[in-house]
Amino acid sequence: MEKFDVHTGRAVPLRASNVDTDQIIPAVYLKRVSRTGFEDGLFAEWRKSDPDFVLNRPEYEGASVLVAGPDFGTGSSREHAVWALQDYGFKAVLSSRFADIFRGNSLKGGLLTVLLPQEVIDRIWAAVEADPTTEVTVDLVERRVRVPAADVVEPFELDDYTRWRLLEGLDDIALTLRHTDDITVFEGTRPDWKPVTL
Amino acid sequence: MARTMAEKVWEEHVVRRAEGEPDLLYIDLHLVHEVTSPQAFEGLRLAGRPVRRPDLTIATEDHNVPTMDLLAPIADPVSRKQVETLRKNCSDFGVRLHPMGDIDQGVVHVVGPQLGLTQPGMTVVCGDSHTSTHGAFGALAFGIGTSQVEHVLATQTLPMQPFKTMAVTVNGRLRPGVTSKDIILAVIAKIGTGGGQGYVIEYRGEAIEALSMESRMTVCNMSIEAGARAGMIAPDQTTFDYVKGRPHAPQGADFDAAVEHWKSLRTDEGAEFDAEVVLDADDLSPFVTWGTNPGQGVPLDAGVPEPSSFEDPSARAAAEKALAYMDLKAGTPMREVSVDTVFLGSCTNGRIEDLRAAAEVIRGRRVADGVRMLVVPGSMRVKEQANEEGLGEVFKEAGAEWREAGCSMCLGMNPDQLKPGERSASTSNRNFEGRQGRGGRTHLVSPLVAAATAVRGTLSSPADL
Ligand code: SF4
User: Fold this and answer.
1) Residues 114 through 153 of chain A touching chain B, CB cutoff 8 Å
2) For B202-232, how does the pLDDT look when each residue is reduced to its tens digit (9 = 90+)?
3) Beta-carbon count within 10 A of B126 CB
4) For ligand 1, is residue B351 a contact (CB within 6 Å)?
5) I want to staple A88 with a disulfide (CB 3.0 to 4.6 A). Which of A39, A80, A179, B333 is the partner?
6) pLDDT of the residue at B46
C-alpha cells in the first residue's frame, strides 16, 4: 500500500447526500476478477446520463480530492467503490458523514476519508465552485485540512493506529500475522461444538 | 458490570487486545461468494499464503447466476468468468463450495442458516453487507470489504474498532397482514439511512420475540439499510428450535451445552445502550417505499410525500431528486401506483415462510395482465421444499415465473433486470437508482404486499383483494 502523509490537489464538489456505492460503481462493473482498471465504472450512470455531472466538467479534470455530501458510501459493501475512486485518481474524500463499511474499506486501502463538519464542507464547496483551481491540502501528519482560499484550517479526527498504518503504508495482514501465536492459543480455547464446514 | 449481548459476543472473540490498537477478533464463520472474493484469493496467491481455516469457510454462487436454464453455460462471459474463478479458487485453496445445480446452492445468507452453520454467539462475516441477516440468531455478523475477506482467509481474524450499541424496542403485537418487513421499513423511515451509523442494533420487545426465526432474519437483514454495522436478536426457544437438528447443529449433549451457553448471551438486566428507539407494533401497517433509498418509505395507506414537508434541506433535495427519478407526483396515493414487475425473493424475503405467505395470497388468483411476477427462491433447498408443499404449482398456475435460486433481480447482475422506466414492487432490500436494472424504479414491499400487488397491478395489500 502507498504511504499517505500530505496530499495537495484540486477538488471536485459533489453536492449530493446519500451517495450509495451502487452509484459510485454500478453492479455491472463488479464482474472483473482483477484488482485494477475500475475507473471506467466510477459514477458510470451519472457520467453517462448527465452531461453536467461534475466529473464531466472540464474544469474539474485531474482533481484528486472529492468533497461529498453527508452519508457518502452507504449501501453495498463493495470495496470496488474505493478502488474505482482510487483508480480514477482520488486520494482523499471529505464528507460530514460516511457509511461505516465504506469508511473501513477506504482506510484499509489507503484512500483517506476525512470527516469534517458540514459547515466546513459548505465553505469548501463554495470556494471550489467559485474557483475550480482552488487547492485543498489533506495533511495526515498534522491531521488537518487546509484550504487557504476558503480560510479553512480544520483539524480532523483519525485514531492513532490507523494514522500510523497509513503513514507507514502497512498492510493489515502482515501486521496480524505477527500475532499468529496468539491466534493459535485462542483456537485451542474454542468449544468443540462450534460448527465446521468440512 | 451489566453488559449487552453484542459486548458479550465481542469479548468472547478477542484474540489480542493492546493499548491504542483495534481488538483482534476471531471469526467463527466466513461466507464467500463470487463477486467480492476473486481479488482476495489473488492477494493470497501473490503473497504465497494459504487459507488458515478452510473448515470455517464456505462458498456458494449467488450474485451472478442465471435463474433459468441452469444446465446451459452462463451466457454473459464476464459473469461466467467470475463463477469459474470462484470454482478454481475454492478447489485450489480447499474451500467447500455449493455450485449451481447443488441442493445447497443459493443466496449466501439463506444457505448459512439453513445448514445450521449460523448459531448464536458466533462471529460471522462475509464480503456482503447483508451479513447482518445472521444476527437474528444472536450472532455478531457483519459485512466486510474484499481486503478484509483476504484478511480473514489468511488469519481467521479481523482487527476491529469498537462499536456503539442501540436498542430498538418494538412493543405490542403486529396486526394481521403486517409483517417483519413492515417493522424494519418503519424503523428505517424513523431513524433514517444514517441513523444506525456506528451502532450494533439489538432488536427487542414483545413484537420481536413473537417473530419466527425467518421473520427475525428479515429484520436483521435490513439493519445495514439504517446504516448499522449489524443487527442482533437475543437467542430464545424459537432460535434453539430452529437450529436443532440442522446438518451442522451441535448434537446430543453438545447441543445442551451449547444452549446453556447461548442463554447466557442475553443482554444483562440494567445494561446500558448508547441509544434507544421505541416503536409500537400496534401502530404499524404495511409499508412501502416511494423513493430511492430505503428510508424513503410510508404506510401503504398514505400518499407520496411533498418534498416541502421535509425540514432538513438535504432530505428535501433528496426527496425532489427521488420523485423525479421515480416519476411520481407528490400527493398520489401509493395504492394508485401501478407496476410492471413483481419480484419475490432475495436474502430479505426469499425463504420458505415468505413463499408460503405470498402463495396463500395468490392461490386461486391470477397475476394481473401486463404484470410479470418473478418468484426466486433464496436457495435450491427452499425451492425443493416449496415444490413439496405445492407452492411452485400455486405460483405457476397464477401465471408467475417460478425460477431457480439466486440473488436475481435484487441487484440485476444476471439477466433478471428491469428495463429503463419499468417499475417494480420488490421484496428485496434496496431501492437505489438502477439497482434492479438501468433506469428501473423500485418499491420495497413485504411478500404479502408483493403478492397482492401482482394480482391487482397496483401497490396493494391482501386486504384490498
Ligand atoms: S439477495 Fe440481494 S442483498 Fe442479498 S446477497 Fe444477494 S444481492 Fe445482496
Assistant:
1) none
2) 999 999 999 999 999 999 999 999 999 999 9
3) 29
4) no
5) A39
6) 84
Q: Which of residues 16-55 of A touch B (CB under 8 A)?
A: 16-18, 20, 22-23, 26-28, 30-35, 45
Q: Does A87 touch chain B (CB under 8 A)?
A: no
Residue B357 — very low, low, confident or very high, per pLDDT cuts 50/70/90? very high
All cell numbers assigned to A47: 457520467
Q: Which of B435, B440, B193, B444 is nearest to B314 (CA)?
A: B193
Q: What is the pLDDT of residues A143-185, one digit of tens each?
A: 999 999 999 999 999 999 999 999 998 888 989 999 999 999 9
Q: Which residues of B touch A36 (CB under 8 A)?
A: none
pLDDT score for B314: 86
Are the Cβ atoms of B194 and A71 closer than 8 angstroms? yes
CB of residue B416 inside a 6 A radius of ligand 1: no
CA neighbor of B345 nearest in space, from B414, B233, B461, B445: B445
Check: CB of residue B265 under 8 Å from CB of residue B138: yes
Neighbour count for residue A62 (Cβ, 10 Å): 10
Chain A closest-CA separation from residue B123 CA (Å)? 11
CB contact under 8 A, B317 and A177: no
3-state secondary structure of B300: coil
Test B119 with A101 for CB contact under 8 angstroms. Answer: no
pLDDT at A35: 80
CB–CB contact A30 B413 (8 Å)? yes
Residues B254-287 pLDDT 10s: 999 999 999 999 999 999 999 999 999 999 999 9
Return the percentage of chain B with pLDDT > 90, whole number. 93
Give the tens place of pLDDT for each residue, B410-435: 998 889 999 999 999 999 999 999 99
ipTM score: 0.94
Dihedral of CA B353/B358/B362/B366: which sign? negative
**Is the CB–ligand 1 distance for residue B225 below 6 Å?**
no
Q: Which residues of A touch B438 (CB under 8 A)?
A: 26, 45
How far away, in angstroms, is B221 Cα from ligand 1 center?
Answer: 10
Strand, helix or coil for residue B169? strand
List the single residue in B22, B56, B314 with the smallest CB-CB distance to A197.
Answer: B56
> pLDDT-derived band of residue B307, with 50, 70 and 90 as boundaries?
very high
Residue nearest to atom 2 of ligand 1 (CA): B410
CA distance A85 to A68: 12
User: Which residues fall within 8 angstroms of residue B50, CB to CB, at 6 or more apart?
Assistant: B44, B93, B154
Residue A95 makes CB contacts below 8 A (sequence gap 6+) with A67, A68, A69, A70, A71, A72, A113, A114, A115, A116, A121
3-class secondary structure, B435: coil
Low-confidence ranges of chain A (pLDDT < 70): none
